[in-house]
Specification:
The complex is a heterodimer of chains A (358) and B (436). Chain A is mainly α and 358 residues long. Chain A contains 15 helices and 4 strands. Helices cover 72% and strands 2% of the residues of chain A. Chain A has a two-stranded antiparallel sheet with strand order 1-4. Chain A is globular, with a radius of gyration of 21 Å. Chain B is α/β, with parallel strands linked by helices and 436 residues long. Classes of the chains: A mainly alpha (358), B alpha/beta (436).
């Protein structure tokens, strides 16, 4: 009734192939975007920004990146934390070496640096796959964290090994440092995520995305029909690392403000982002967002309910939360192994027939 | 459909919880506790949080609060994790009439919060942890680290080693086993300076978070046999290191930990092997003070204790109490100075800056000799920098103080802290304020 394609005529190939083919879905999408851009910035406060929106945007970015690699190109990676660290340290070095540079440039350049490192650590993927590749990327994770802790050049020889983001502005508005306003960092993150999600969506529909999926589905067949594994795999590593590097840069500069490589970019980050991608849905842009939202928002929600509403002890709440989230992950994976994105797809199928299913 | 309903229910619950948690502002002193009762650092985090909270409960129950104003102590679980620390800070800073003081018990979270509290105007007290150069009150207006800091600790440990070797460290070797993080790296600068002036050789042995695996580090110590081993460890790392030291039969009385590496939880797992292990300390161990009778009566027996009561009198519990006592005394001072009972964060800061807890005041509080006398000033946010050395007696399962409170090499510490804080000020465009 509400959600159907009847009467929505497509007269060009272009409109036939658009991302949201159904009118009400398009409306929903634009309403959502308008809400995010035009309503939230006026009502956001420190708490919502720091506890909800910034982590959500950052992990959406990271999950998008990892989904390109794992979901679209089929290359398992456990190096996400390490690549995020590359982004963060690149960001720090750029911020301190070129104080005049604006934050958009810094963040994108951090992504570019990470893309380079990603290609380097993607080289083993040309020879090995599956579990063996996962182990090779795991090595990247440990090597990168060790390197950033070992060589003082990366943290500008500070005594503690901490990197701290100095204040940087965009159009005169501070987006890093202590004196930022919640709306500024939020809009900064939102613009980046919006633009690059758009790019990711269109990359995955085009030639490059198809070559990634061909490699994922059967690499030998792909090679026979003319897809170059070298180009496809390395471009997947590059693009994926680019996104993850930007996420790391935002995590450090816009969200945390100070970071310590072993603590902020450990192996648990790699697993967290991988879980987001798996729970959200492999090979789905929407899935990256849903997975990130699930693992970022649910703990905050549970904590608010258990500690603030029920007045439970904080340790009890923390333990219950770990169990509940673990349980929910298992539940969702049994109920729908293809992730939350697939659940949404099924919901849409049912909605089309509602209220007269056959 | 189901999922959608679920999502809507979730959104409503989120909105509800956000709206209800806004408590109407009432006259109370908000001292949030960023604690960690889960994760690899919980063995040390739990007793500290219990002590911190129980002392506030005691003040509320026995004295009816500070100057008649009750203390509220909202707790938030950080898990020693900086991201959760940020969330906890943001969620508690607006609680009630606004948070008055933060004590995160984590050097990483402290580094994270220094710029934030400075922008928000809330005092941060990193009691003997955090950024050492915060002792320079001219640069760090809102940050305090009295009564002692890591660099003080490093010089005291060196002094103790020197006393043990007959007053000369020339040609000796000292290995530093440290948590490979901002916390563990803090003393390196000072120890390097000391190595130059005292003529000992310093070996750095990092242990990565969380520190459950230290075989290779202790193999290196076994091979090199340094004359002394210093440790900057926390959480499970402490217990593992002491066990490993016992395994390689390292002479325990030459193994000296910082004050965060010397609690019962750290030595008990190693059993008799831990006998003779030393650590620095700046708080009293035991429960033979009048204040503990009150805690028993008003808090534990009344069923209001934060923990199960088994930690009372242990190192970390007492240290949590000491931290809470310093906060309460600062609030008292702030009330006295501002002439109002309902103080705000800026008045709290002034109270901390003029805090003076001497031996007589400790005696009045029923805590005679509980810690060093603390006196804070505008320029010196770092207190006196004294600590003592304690030794573990595995037979009696007790820590015994083997020295009096020893002064740190404040000349060196102050010089290094000035260098560091001035560099910080320059980096962040802070003009150091004048102190009268």
């Amino acid at each position: 009734m509400l959600y159907r394609e009847a009467g929505d005529f497509k007269t060009t190939y272009r409109s036939d192939q658009q991302t949201f083919p159904i009118k009400s879905e398009r409306w929903l999408f634009w309403a959502f975007i308008a809400f995010a851009f035009l309503v939230v910035p006026f009502f956001i406060n420190d708490y919502w920004n720091k506890a909800v929106f910034m982590p959500l945007l950052i992990y959406c970015m990271a999950a998008l990146g990892l989904n390109i690699l794992v979901g679209y190109a089929g290359q398992v990676s456990l190096g996400t934390g390490g690549f995020m660290a590359v982004g963060a340290f690149a960001c720090y070095k750029l911020m301190t070496a070129f104080p005049w540079m604006d934050m958009f440039t810094v963040t994108v350049l951090s992504g570019v640096v990470t893309a380079g490192v990603g290609i380097l650590f993607g080289l083993p993927s040309l020879r090995i796959k599956g579990f063996y590749l996962a182990v090779a990327t795991l090595a990247a994770q440990f090597f990168l964290v060790w390197m950033f802790n070992k060589f003082p050049w990366f943290y500008n020889y500070s005594a503690s090994g901490q990197i701290t983001a100095p204040e940087r502005t965009i159009f005169g508005v501070a987006v890093t440092g202590a004196n930022t306003t919640p709306w500024a960092t939020y809009v900064f993150g939102l613009v980046l995520v919006f633009v690059f999600a758009w790019v990711a969506r269109n990359l995955t529909r085009g030639r490059i995305g198809r070559s990634w999926m061909a490699i994922r589905d059967m690499d030998i067949a792909a090679e026979i029909i003319g897809v170059s594994p070298l180009q496809a795999k390395l471009s997947a590593f590059a693009v994926s690392s680019f996104y993850i590097g930007m996420a790391g840069s935002m995590l450090f500069a816009n969200y945390l403000g100070a970071a310590e490589v072993t603590e902020a970019f450990g192996i648990d980050k790699s697993f967290l982002v991988l879980f987001m991608v798996i729970i959200g849905g492999l090979g789905s842009i929407l899935g990256s967002f849903l997975g990130a939202a699930f693992l970022v928002l649910l703990p905050v929600l549970l904590k608010n309910i258990m500690v603030d509403q029920f007045g439970w002890a904080t340790d009890l709440a923390a333990h219950v939360q770990i169990m509940l989230i673990g349980g929910l992950i298992i539940f969702f994976l049994i109920a729908e192994p293809h992730g939350l994105a697939q659940l949404w797809r099924l919901t849409k199928e049912k909605l089309r027939l509602w209220p007269f299913p056959y | 459909m189901k999922l959608k309903k679920f999502a809507i229910a979730g959104a409503i619950a989120a909105a509800l919880s956000a709206s209800v948690s806004v408590v109407p502002a009432s006259a109370e002193l908000v001292f949030p506790s960023l604690s960690y009762r889960t994760g690899p650092y919980a063995p040390n985090g739990i007793p500290f949080a219990d002590g911190y909270s129980d002392y506030f409960t005691l003040i509320n129950e026995r004295d009816g609060g500070v100057g008649g104003v009750k203390i509220s102590n909202p707790e938030c679980e950080t898990g020693y994790n900086t991201e959760k620390g940020v969330e906890c800070y943001e969620s508690t800073k607006g609680e009630g009439s606004g948070a008055l003081i933060y004590q995160p018990l984590s050097t990483g979270i402290t580094y994270q919060l220094i710029p934030k509290v400075t922008a928000d105007g809330i005092p941060l007290h990193s009691m003997a942890y955090g950024r050492t150069s915060a002792m320079n009150g001219k640069v760090f207006n809102w940050v305090f680290n009295y009564p002692a800091n890591y660099w003080d600790g490093a010089t005291i440990a060196v002094q103790h080693a020197k006393d043990m070797s007959g007053g000369d460290l020339n040609g000796k070797t000292i290995a530093l086993v440290y948590h490979n993080s901002a916390y563990g790296k803090e003393p390196i600068r000072t120890l390097e300076e000391k190595a130059k002036s005292e003529g000992f050789k310093l070996t750095l042995i990092p242990v990565d978070h969380p520190g459950q695996e230290q075989k290779s580090q202790w193999l290196q110590i076994r091979r090199e046999r340094p004359d002394f081993v210093f440790m900057w460890g926390w959480g499970v790392m402490n217990a593992v290191a002491i066990q490993e030291a016992a395994n390689i039969r390292y002479p325990m009385d030459h193994f000296i930990g910082i004050w965060w590496s010397g609690a019962e939880q750290d030595v008990l797992p190693a059993g008799d092997g831990a006998n003779g292990y030393k650590s620095l300390n700046f708080t009293y161990v035991g429960k033979d003070k009048p204040v503990f009778a009150d805690i028993q009566k008003y808090v534990v027996d009344a069923g209001k204790a934060a923990g199960d009561g088994s930690n009372i009198g242990t190192v970390q519990y007492n240290r949590g109490m000491y931290a809470a006592m310093l906060a309460v005394e600062a609030a008292r001072k702030a009330q006295e100075m501002s002439g109002t009972m309902d103080i705000n964060a800026a008045q709290m800061r002034d109270g901390m800056e003029n805090l003076n807890v001497d031996a007589a005041r400790l005696e009045e509080l029923g805590m005679a000799g509980f810690g060093p006398a603390v006196s804070v000033s505008c320029a010196n946010h770092g207190g006196s920098g004294e600590a003592l050395v304690q030794q573990w007696d595995a037979g009696a399962k007790q820590w015994k103080a083997i020295t009096e409170f020893m002064p740190a090499d404040r000349e060196l510490v102050t010089r290094l802290a000035m260098e560091d804080s001035e560099a910080f000020a320059k980096e962040n465009n802070i003009t150091p304020r004048e102190c009268k």
